[in-house]
Amino acid sequence: MAAKLATELESFRSIWKGGFFGADPLEPLDSLYGLWGYTSMQHAIYLACIKPYINSKTSAVEIGPGRGAWTRAMVGAGEVTCLDALSAEHNGFWQYVGRRENLRYFKVEDFSCSMLADDSVDYLFSFDALCHVSFDGISAYMASLFPKFRSGAHGFIMVADYAKYNSFVENLPRFDVTRTLLAKNSGQLKQRLVDVYLLPLQTRARNRAPWRPLNLSEDDVARPGRWYNAGGTRTCELLEKLGYEVLDPDMELDYRSPVIHFRKR
Ligand SMILES: C[S@@+](CC[C@H](N)C(=O)[O-])C[C@H]1O[C@@H](n2cnc3c(N)ncnc32)[C@H](O)[C@@H]1O
Prior knowledge:
This protein is of the alpha/beta class. It is 33% helix and 16% strand. The chain has helices at residues 2-10, 41-50, 88-91, 93-97, 135-145, 162-170, 177-184, 187-207, 232-242; strands at 59-63, 79-84, 103-107, 121-126, 149-158, 244-248, 259-264. Strand 4, helix 5 and strand 5 form a beta-alpha-beta unit. The chain starts with a helix and ends with a strand. The relative contact order is 0.14. The protein binds S-adenosylmethionine. GO terms for molecular function: methyltransferase activity.
């Protein structure tokens, strides 16, 4: 066995002079597998922010589930409580997620989270929802949730940060995977990328509303579907003031907006 293992080691000695280098893990668009080395932002958020924190004993809360895209990723929890400004019927929630014993849905009338018992929540998730809530609303939610959280409970919340959003809009090419791949590759692959991906993508992008910078000094007046510039730093300061511990001010999984990771000590 020892000789076999020694031969195994020896078999590698003459290759990869200079050190194998596939791709830079710190570069979000560098890919070891070229075209086939990408995962979506949503899936990365699921893998980093949901999957490790959910098991059959977890009592999870989601703010603003909408139709339930993320809720479906949490149904393995012991129980999931969803709070939304819109009714489940309006959101088509049950049709999409399916009725389950461990799933509760509340159309909220205020920010008190009164349907949750004290010391009962292990995990909070909210994506693309608190960006539609004013800073006062976020403050009220997070204050209400503090006594509901168990010690050690984790939270992941995405909030709007217009400075981060505007930096994304101003640097769109930096985040464009097709440009990265075209710059790295030549010949047949390049042509395939242009034909199969770039041209259809450009047509789709042209047909969609263009990304526009947001006004940093926007008003605070309620309008349907609007965003509110809570700001990543301001929200982290709020969380710390309320007694939570911010573990990561931005998971950096969403190019547009911070996803804050925090917990109750
Ligand atoms: C853009 S949708 C996102 C839905 C879902 N989180 C997703 O990513 O697919 C925003 C959701 O937040 C909900 N929402 C807005 N204000 C809210 C509030 N104050 N409390 C709870 N939910 C709210 C909306 O009703 C809507 O379902």
